[in-house]
Design goal:
The complex is a heterodimer of chains A (431) and B (106). Helix content of chain A is 31%, strand content 26%. With 431 residues, chain A is an alpha/beta fold. Chain A folds into 2 domains: 162 residues, FAD/NAD(P)-binding domain, CATH 3.50.50.60; 143 residues, FAD/NAD(P)-binding domain (3-Layer(bba) Sandwich), CATH 3.50.50.60. Chain A is globular and about 65 Å long. In chain B, 61% of the residues lie in helices and 0% in strands. Chain B is globular and about 35 Å long. Chains A and B meet through α1, α9, β22, β23 and α10 of A and α1, α2 and α4 of B.
Chain lengths: 431, 106
């Protein structure tokens, strides 16, 4: 048993005691779970998984999923659209299976208010839902207050972020297609923490793949607001082997810390005006924080993200509310679709067990982040996560990145697994 | 009142294990939850769209699962990512996974 039972119980803290108390009041026989209503806010990887697995673990529970869009485009895979490997349709997910096969009540609307005192959520359309438990999984929003001067939501048509997949992905793809051969694609990558740590570098890879086949004289410049990045050694080696010197990465200490953007001339400016990087296509990925509803419902702390119990993902602020996915502060777990999927299963189990008056399960979660360097060159980072000491950590000795010295066949196998992973995880979530 | 509540909490905690084994009501076990995490890659639907990663949807023989996971873990079986995952599980946890996938065999 690698988990310290004492630490584990300690982590349950007030939330665990409250759960036990509530269960006592409603038991015996776990009657509370029968007909309990769980509302899930957000139909991305975390929310849709939670909704499906709540029904899977206990079909007595009524589950309502509130999601603004009828079609959800996964952020993962959107770089492959930019590279021309996939079409938007290929990364589109819908909610018919959750509704028809799994009995989830899917409402296409936006949650405008959460009242943790009366356990009610209000939707933009005016509907009010009562919940016994609430799962909040709103992904990310952009922190324009700390973004580079000159940028705002209003500039995202000219300078797309494409960090929420959908229309933004299409805008960036069209700009890349319209760019002349010999042009410069400049990406500004955010500081930590942010959604999909290897994402900017896979994006550079996929754009390089497109340039190599269609616009071979073009350049890619990554201006980074940090000193190192996910799978750095693997990406740098993969770029050199496949794209020569097409991609240049500039860390924050060498001029990558972009302070201002001149939108009209698509110029990124750093070091008080010392460095000016003129782009033909400029992709500014803003600093991020928890999704909007997490802020209006006061589920965030001063980091802009949501503190949660590391065993049950109950909000540290409101214990009938669980926050999962990118919005949550989940120890060492990265903000990835795979993490959110794993957290969705954990929270479904935690809610089912709490409603039945059972003790929570010691968490065991997984993350696997695949990235394509080329269509035939895949790399990965993986870990198994448990609750260790006082937070979620990778199990010591497990996980890590693909070997640095692997041969082309190994990279090709991981590229195949990358595509298999996409098919499998999206079926696990929306299938 | 406060004492009654505290006593109720203590009772619930002490009876937790007993209630689990005696009740037919839904409970999610650790083995089940761990096994579900495998399905992100290993296909949650039988005969799913993914042709490259072996499906565990129809379960898996217990002894073979234990043998494979241990071989991934000690490196005697080559893999791309499974060695890195297998290192995250103790013998007991591998047994829990194997027990669960054995019960879901079809």
């Amino acid at each position: 048993m690698s988990i310290s039972r004492r630490h584990f119980l300690k982590a349950l803290g007030a939330g665990g005691a409250a759960t036990a108390l509530a269960a006592c009041a409603q038991m015996p026989g776990g009657e509370k779970a029968r007909g309990a209503h769980v509302v899930v806010v957000g139909g991305g990887s975390g929310g849709a998984t939670a909704a499906k697995y709540l029904r899977h673990f206990d079909s007595d529970i009524r589950v309502t999923l509130v999601e603004p869009n009828a079609t959800y485009h996964t952020c993962y895979g959107s770089n492959w659209v930019l590279g021309g490997l996939r079409q938007m349709n290929d990364i589109a997910q819908t909610y018919g299976n959750l509704r028809d096969r799994h009995g989830v009540n899917v409402i296409q609307d936006t949650v405008t208010a959460i009242d943790p005192e009366t356990n009610r959520v209000t939707l933009a359309g005016g509907q009010v839902l009562n919940y016994d438990k609430l799962v909040v999984a709103p992904g990310i929003s952009f922190n324009w207050a700390t973004a580079a001067e000159g940028t705002s939501e209003a500039t995202t048509n000219q300078i797309p972020h494409a960090w929420k997949a959908g229309p933004q992905t299409e805008i960036l793809r069209r700009q890349l297609e319209a760019m002349p051969d010999g042009g410069v694609f400049v990406m500004v990558a955010p500081g930590n923490p942010f959604r999909c740590p290897p994402g900017p570098y896979e994006r550079a890879s996929m754009v390089a793949h497109y340039f190599k086949t269609h616009k071979p004289r073009s350049k890619i410049l990554i201006l980074d607001n940090k000193e190192n990045f996910s799978k750095q050694g693997l990406f740098l080696a993969g770029w050199e082997a496949n794209y020569g010197n097409m991609i240049e990465w500039v860390p924050s200490s060498r001029g990558g810390q972009v302070e201002r953007i001149d939108v009209a001339s698509k110029t990124a400016i750093s070091d008080g005006g010392l460095n000016r990087f003129k782009a033909d296509v400029l992709n500014y990925i803003p600093p991020q924080r928890a999704g909007e509803i997490a802020h209006s419902a006061s589920l965030v702390n001063d980091t802009g993200w949501c503190p949660v119990n590391q065993v049950t993902f109950q909000s540290s602020i409101h214990t009938d509310i669980h926050v999962i996915g990118d919005s949550s502060i989940a120890g060492a777990m990265p903000k990835s679709g795979h993490s959110a999927n794993s957290q969705g299963k954990l929270v479904a189990a935690a809610i089912v067990n709490a409603l039945r008056g059972r003790d929570p399960i010691a968490p065991s979660m997984v993350n696997t982040c695949y990235s394509l360097v080329t269509p035939d060159w895949g790399i990965s980072v993986a870990a198994v996560y448990q609750f260790l000491d006082d937070s979620i950590k990778g199990v010591p000795g497990s996980g890590g990145v693909s070997p640095a010295d692997a041969d082309r066949n190994f990279r090709r196998m991981e590229a195949n697994y990358t595509r298999g992973w996409y098919d499998s995880i999206t079926t696990d979530i929306w299938g | 009142m406060k004492h009654a509540k505290l006593a109720a909490v203590a009772l619930a905690v002490s009876l937790g294990g007993l209630a689990v084994s005696q009740s037919a009501l839904a409970e999610v076990t650790r083995g089940q939850l761990m096994a579900k995490t495998c399905l992100a890659c290993h296909g949650s639907v039988a005969g799913g769209p993914d042709a490259t990663i072996p499906s565990l949807v129809n379960g898996y023989p217990r002894q073979l699962m234990i043998q494979n996971m241990k071989a991934f873990r000690d490196g005697t079986r080559a893999a791309t990512v499974m060695n890195r995952h297998a290192l995250g599980y103790t013998d007991e946890e591998i047994a829990l996974l194997a027990d669960y996938f054995d019960t879901t065999r079809r």
